[in-house]
Design goal:
alpha/beta; D-Maltodextrin-Binding Protein, domain 2; three-stranded antiparallel β-sheet; about 50% helix
């Protein structure tokens, strides 16, 4: 009897250990950098469907994009990778590939749904290999106050000349500028100026080619007619300035749709793709991609999760609930009628989308470009001498990085 009881107890312990091990295997650990309202949508509307379908549990953690490469480097270096899948800013991918921190997903690239726009796939490709799958694109659209434009019989600007005309007219009629540019500094300013340089046919990292010179000349000319709040304008404050009518025209990301129109009730604020430069229309594609850390324990489940997030059902929920643009061309059928014109503007902008280069010296470029804006646009210094100075600085930085790579 005692022997039988012992066998039962041992069997029960083994069963419990096996069950715990099985349970642990079905925990998918995810890292993302989201705002609280975005996390709520993920936890309430997205994750439960995947957990039910795959009989697993998702453990999700907040890690900022800037912090993730170092954290992952430490995990891989120690051989203790505790994350299965992560999202990352498409401007912070180079170091992850260069340091061999992510799985090569090339064998699975054909699983990316064909409805995913072709341009969305480019950000994840390095050296002809696919390391990241598209997930969340972002592109700035141009918001404008329809009633104010009608009041002064103005059309929404389609090029730099019309932009300058509108800025001058608003300043003349109201005694204060009403066109907004993001001149607060850092990333918001860099994105705005970068895409203007490309639209002028320039190469931003050169600083002093013809396209760069044209861009800074027009910005310098435009500055006196801008809204004074331009110097405080960044991603979040731009929405406020549009809603309180400090800005009648400004570019910002599509997340502003829900804030300006839904929260503030500003139905007179409409949107379109944007204006073109002397050579083309160009809009920086931001957003995030998905990757799997090298050595992840649940690679197969992680891949299924990535494809789940790319599915039409999930993309439609993210569009409707959060106002995110979609990587898919077929993910807009569920949006409310009032949202449709704004997503039409988003698709227009994406069609003219450009990616910034994934380089290790982007931080230096960002710093130099912002300094050039302060000196030329705000302080009204001469264009060419300042740009020549930053051209030389940037080329020295590039050569230094290239020299390190060789050695």
């Amino acid at each position: 009897m005692k022997k039988l009881l012992l066998i039962i107890i041992v069997s029960f312990v083994i069963f419990q250990l096996f069950a715990c091990a099985r349970k642990e295997e079905l925990v998918l650990k995810v890292v993302m950098g989201l705002a609280e309202n975005e996390w709520q949508v993920m936890r309430d509307e997205i994750f439960p469907d995947f957990e039910k379908k795959h009989n697993c549990k998702i453990e999700a953690y907040q890690v900022e994009a800037a912090d993730w490469p170092k954290k992952l480097q430490a995990m891989v270096g120690a051989g203790k990778v505790s994350v299965d899948v992560f999202s990352q800013d498409n401007m912070r991918l180079f170091a992850l590939v260069e340091n061999n921190l992510v799985e090569d997903l090339s064998p699975y690239k054909k699983q990316i749904p064909h409805q995913v726009m072709a341009g969305m796939k480019e950000a994840g490709v390095f050296g002809g290999r696919v390391y990241f799958f598209p997930y969340r694109p972002n592109v700035q659209i141009t918001y404008y106050n329809r009633d104010k434009f009608r009041k002064y019989n103005l059309q929404k600007p389609k090029d730099w000349n019309e932009l300058l005309k509108a800025a001058k007219l608003f300043k003349e009629k109201e005694g204060i500028g009403r066109v907004g540019l993001k001149l607060w500094g850092d990333g918001p300013t860099t994105v705005q100026v970068y895409e203007m340089i490309v639209s002028a046919g320039g190469k931003p990292l050169k600083f002093n080619d013809e396209g760069c010179i044209k861009t800074f000349k027009v910005l310098k000319k435009l500055y006196p007619y801008l809204s004074p709040d331009s110097k405080k304008a960044k991603w979040d404050t731009t929405n406020t300035y549009l809603a309180n009518e400090s800005f009648y025209l400004a570019q910002n990301w599509p997340f502003g749709i829900n804030i300006i129109v839904r929260e503030y009730g500003k139905k007179d604020i409409l949107a379109y793709g944007g204006w073109r430069g002397p050579e083309r229309e160009a809009h920086v594609i931001g957003g995030e991609v998905l990757g799997i850390p090298r050595g992840a324990k649940n690679k197969d489940l992680a891949l299924k999760f990535i494809l789940f997030l790319e599915s039409r059902e999930v993309q439609e929920k993210l569009v409707a609930a959060l106002g995110w643009p979609s990587i898919r061309s077929d993910a807009y059928s569920e949006v409310a009628d009032w949202q449709k014109p704004y997503f039409k503007a988003t698709r227009e902008a994406l069609e003219c989308g450009i990616y910034r280069p994934n380089v290790l010296y982007w931080g230096e470029f960002d710093k130099f470009l912002n300094e050039a804006v302060i000196r030329i646009v705000i302080k009204q210094k001469a264009v060419i001498p300042v740009l020549d100075e930053y051209h030389n600085k940037m080329q020295n930085i590039i050569r230094a990085y290239e020299s390190r790579a060789i050695h």
